[in-house]
Amino acid sequence: MKKSNRRKFIGTAGLIAVGTAASAFPSSSEKPVYPVVHHVFFWLKNPASKEDRDQLVAGVKTLSKIETVRELHVGIVASTEKRDVVDNSWAVSELMFFSDLAGQATYQTHPLHLEFIKNCSHLWEKVIVYDAVKA
Asked: Cβ–Cβ contacts within 10 Å for residue 41, how many?
């Protein structure tokens, strides 16, 4: 094989290998889209209690076992810049994604959700829920 043909062959083979490897990973357009978002903010009765916060976080995480919950993100308030538009008065947040409104309705009455409320409601003094659908 001549040197220039060998270089072309190696270069082409390399491009094919890179293209094949890249196609093995899902593209951002293949990410699942869950059109129903359920975002909950909790204010603790004892805001200085790390133990209460950790107990609530653990309780919220159990909700991921509900079959209609597609994704669950649990957060605690971040120490970000203080600005008029930032509300950092809450302690724990739960961000859930559902495939549809029926899945969100199932979650509301699911035994695991009801058990969470029974076991953890003594920890919070206030809860605010924001439900949204994809526009």
From this structure: 20
